[in-house]
């Protein structure tokens, strides 16, 4: 089976990505062959490409896609030919038309969830799930701050947090994104003086949790938003990594908690992966969450997709079409 695949032979800007042809081997024990119908593009892909999260080179890119099972290797019992499946996380290499994958990394896509939604939002949906229900479980009556509320994770997480009974404050970087975030948040604020705005909204109390996927630019201000014993959940580096800091600052600002979680550590067992994905898909099917695909690019146009993502030109989730 021949596949088209995006490869990088060095780390760098979007120009290092090359479209190549490869021959795939037949699936081995515990593996399946997928014909991929849609591929998700995520910020972590840009980190892998640039070398912020270095890869062993040469390498593929991408961690999320949806496809159809076309061949099954020995000892695979959970899936059959023709099943619609998706994955998010694991080894890079999703930017491809066909792919051989370990069956243990796949989840069934239920009826009522489209290929595009599964491919473009499963990573974000499972991220929202573990952030809101596991890392810091959100409860009725709480007020929370979620940065980049108009982004792919932000849109889903803010919707879900409100369904859980929280009051949601979301930050955005432009009026265009504020229009989007107002659909999902109770309060939409700019990044300018955001900690002061949060204090004003909460009557000076602050919030028990800040979910921060922005990183360097918002770290200090996020700490200033928290109540005593509040938690800063730093789950991304859109503006660059959080700089080194003295742990004593957490004590000084109220015995705060700081965590840097990853989806992989919250879905490290088969049961955790299946349950996290099922919870997200269930919320979509019930209409509790309305994920949106903002833009779609051809696989060959992946450089443009990365450029638009880096420049914050995208809204919602981004897809590549094989």
TrEMBL record:
The keyword Cytoplasm does not apply. PROSITE patterns: QOR_ZETA_CRYSTAL. One of its GO terms (molecular function) is quinone reductase (NADPH) activity. CDD domains: QOR2 (cd05286). It holds the Pfam family ADH_N. Residues 12-320 form the Enoyl reductase (ER) domain. Keywords: NADP, Oxidoreductase. GO terms for cellular component: cytosol. SUPFAM superfamilies: GroES-like (SSF50129), NAD(P)-binding Rossmann-fold domains (SSF51735). This is Quinone oxidoreductase. It comes from Iodobacter ciconiae.
């Amino acid at each position: 089976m021949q596949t088209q695949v995006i490869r990088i032979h060095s780390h760098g800007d979007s120009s290092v990505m090359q479209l190549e042809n490869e021959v795939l081997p037949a699936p081995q024990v515990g593996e399946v062959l997928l014909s991929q119908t849609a591929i998700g593009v995520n910020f972590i892909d840009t980190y892998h490409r640039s070398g912020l999260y270095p890869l062993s080179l040469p390498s593929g890119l991408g961690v999320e896609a949806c496809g159809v099972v076309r061949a099954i290797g020995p000892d695979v019992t959970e899936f059959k030919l023709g099943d619609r499946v998706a994955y998010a996380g694991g080894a890079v290499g999703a930017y491809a038309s066909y792919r051989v994958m370990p069956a243990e990394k796949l989840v069934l896509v239920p009826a009522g969830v489209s290929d595009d939604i599964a491919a473009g939002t499963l990573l974000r949906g499972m991220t929202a799930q573990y952030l809101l229900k596991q890392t810091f479980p959100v409860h009725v009556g709480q007020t929370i701050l979620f940065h980049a509320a108009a982004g792919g994770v932000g849109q889903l997480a803010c919707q879900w947090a409100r369904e859980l009974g929280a009051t949601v404050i979301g930050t955005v970087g432009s009026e265009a994104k504020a229009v989007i975030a107002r659909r999902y948040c109770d309060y939409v604020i700019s990044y300018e003086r955001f900690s002061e705005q949060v204090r004003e909204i909460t009557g000076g109390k602050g919030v028990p949790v800040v979910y921060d996927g922005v990183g360097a630019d918002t770290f200090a201000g996020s700490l200033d938003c928290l109540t005593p014993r509040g938690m800063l959940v730093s789950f991304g580096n859109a503006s660059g990594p959080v700089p080194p800091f003295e742990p004593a600052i957490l004590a000084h600002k109220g015995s705060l908690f700081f965590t840097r979680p990853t989806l992989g550590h919250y879905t490290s067992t088969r049961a955790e992966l299946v349950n996290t994905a099922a919870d997200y898909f269930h919320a979509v099917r019930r209409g509790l969450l309305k994920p949106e695909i903002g833009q779609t690019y051809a696989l060959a146009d992946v450089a443009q997709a990365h450029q638009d993502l880096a420049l914050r030109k995208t809204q919602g989730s981004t897809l590549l079409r094989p």
